[in-house]
Amino acid sequence: MLQAARVGPGDFVVDLGSGDGRIAIAAAKQFGARAMGVEFNPDMVALSRRATADAGVIDRVEIVQGDMYAADISQATVLALFLLPRNLLEFRTKFFNLAPGTRIVANTFGIEGWEPDVKDTPPGCRTWCTALLWIVPAKIEGTWRMPEGDLSLSQSFQKVSGVLGGRPITGGRLRGEDVTFTIGDVHYTGRVNGDTMSGTTSSGATWSARR
Fold it and tell me: How does 155-190 read in b/e, with b if 16+ C-beta sit within 10 Å?
């Protein structure tokens, strides 16, 4: 899971319902990240705190006893989770409203209605070993002004549809703040920065849009 999310020393990894703390500990010990586990069961909290000390990562891992639904996850760069589908569905709106580019990786179970960007099962692994990765997309739904006309966009998580001057766009997709779409035979790639977007086309031209 942590490999699929490309966790590194600059990350802050949060595990909700962290159990014995193994994900948070691995994030710190194997990948050099800071990590926090949130666990309701006080016995598991005590166990995971001992494991954190035994692993020598107490300076980079915090285990919090509390309600995972009330936890502040706004500073997380990665959420690494092993939760049931009903739990993930309850978090869906909260996850979607995290900062663009935040990575959410889950074991086996998906988020209803939100297709993962990556699905990875290591060779030879049979159970509880499929990593599902979502990258929180920028919010671009609305009308954008371009020299060619109005670009009207609709968004369903990372999938984007719409029209530019009456011409439909196809293949619209977001990966964090990176956006791609096609109009006719021209492919657009660009980056979202708040209420502006800019990039290049497959013909080598530059493009920009403002909301």
Answer: bebbebbbebeeeebeebebebbbbebebeeeebeb
d(CA 119, CA 141) in angstroms, rounded, equals 26
Residue type at 146?
A: M
Ordered mean pLDDT values, 10 residues apiece, the chain (211 residues): 96 97 98 98 98 97 97 98 97 98 97 96 86 98 94 97 94 98 96 97 96 94
N-term to C-term CA, the chain = 36
Burial 37-68 (b: 16+ CB within 10 A, else e): bbbeeeebbebbbebbeebebeebbebbeeeb
Find the angle CA(187)-CA(102)-CA(211) to the nearest 5 degrees. Answer: 50
Interaxial angle between packed helices 42-55 and 22-31, expressed in degrees from 0 to 180 and rounded to the nearest 10:
20
3-state secondary structure of 115: coil
Among 14, 159, 148, which Cα is nearest to 77's? 14
pLDDT given at position 127: 86
**pTM, rounded to two decimals:** 0.94
Per-residue tokens: 49: 């705190």
Instruction: Measure the CA–CA gap between 170 and 124, rounded to whole angstroms.
Output: 37
Q: Name the residue among 180, 178, 149, 142 with its Cα closest to residue 164.
A: 149
